[in-house]
Write a structure and sequence with these properties.
Order of helices and strands of chain A: HEEEEEEEEEE
Number of helices of chain A: 1
Low-confidence stretches of chain B: none
Mean pLDDT of chain A: 82
Number of helices of chain B: 6
Distance between the termini of chain B: 76 Å
Number of strands of chain B: 10
Order of helices and strands of chain B: HEEEEHHEHEHEEEEH
Mean pLDDT of chain B: 90
Strand content of chain A: over 45%
Distance between the termini of chain A: 28 Å
Radius of gyration of chain B: 29 Å
Largest sheet of chain B: 8 strands, mixed
Number of strands of chain A: 10
Largest interface: A-B, 33 and 39 residues
Strand order of the largest sheet of chain B: 1-10-9-4-5-6-2-3
Oligomer: heterodimer
Amino acid sequence: MTKRGWPKGLGLLMGMMIFQSAAWADESISIDNAWVRDAPPHAEMSAGYLTIMNHSDQARTLTSISSPQFQKVEAHKTEMVNGQVRMLREDNVTVPAHGSLEFKPGGYHLMLIHPLHELKIGDRVELHLQFKGAQPLTVEAQIRDTADEMPPHDMHKMHDMNM
Amino acid sequence: MKGLRSLPYLKHVAAQRRRLHFNRFAWSGVVVIMAALAAAYWFYRHETVRPPDPPGVQSVMPPEKLPTFSLVDQHGVGFTRTQLLGKWTIMFFGYTHCPDFCPTTLAGLNSAYHRLERQAPKLAASTQVVFVSVDPFRDTPAILSDFVSHFNKDFIGATGPAAQLHRLTDPLGASYDYTDASSHDLFPDDKRPTQKDYVVDHSSGLYILDGKARLVAWVLPPHTAGRIVSVYEHMRNLYD
């Protein structure tokens, strides 16, 4: 690299940072209590849970999720129909204006498909949440031991790693 | 002369016979009435002593005896009706590709089992938990072993071909269907779905079987430890 190339690259980098911070200025969505269930060894599937809070005046829609640690992530919903339990894929999950949506055992959950490496309790799973018309939101979810009762709400695992 | 004297005597004997006859008739009547009263009392006692089922629980009276069936457990060993004899069983149907409901339920069963071990060790010692996979295409014994022992090393995992699974699910009133998670279209009965990542709709209940392989009750979710323990102890108290 020539010395002349420096200011150009720096300018581009600064420009990107400004653009990014502008995108993140939209703080209408926040995520709380993100966690992933400790899955059995060699399990093809695991489940992630979190609470999405929408602070804006408009309903927001979660359109896709991804994670560098899983081949695929989908939003699913567990439903009870005539004593049968079934799972439905939800391609769009809408969080009402000034409302929240809880992903929790027995309801909405993130279906984490095919882990790319073995994960253990305490590990962190990076999740990218894509809301309609917004920059992807990055969240860290910790792998938790399987528990019978609902997990405590004292753990705040929301991190904006891009900031 | 003898005849004249004997006539009243004969009448007396006949009357005595009639009385005796009547008495016999009356006695058998009394026996029948008493038996009916006893039966009525028994039913009355039975109905009033037996407490109502807890919410979300359906007890089965009389307990429904299961037929023979032939599955394979997580060690690759045969799992048949014989394995249900001598111990009470809490049975649950599911599949290992189920990331939400099945792990939540097995975690609940594990906590419940530990509570039983602490609170009622005798009950725990005569209890087994069986997870039956209704997805034999993907759930090999090795996969079942990883899955079940993740929650509790003592839990049993079993599966088998559709015909054998139905010998268990049908009498229990349990069911399962292979479906597409998005469209929710059903795949043809019991055949391996053509789609790779199919899901399985399955009964959500826990099935409580007594030590004679008879269905005693089934329990609807939520399967939290506290609820499982109280319902299970309730059923055991009714029969033990």
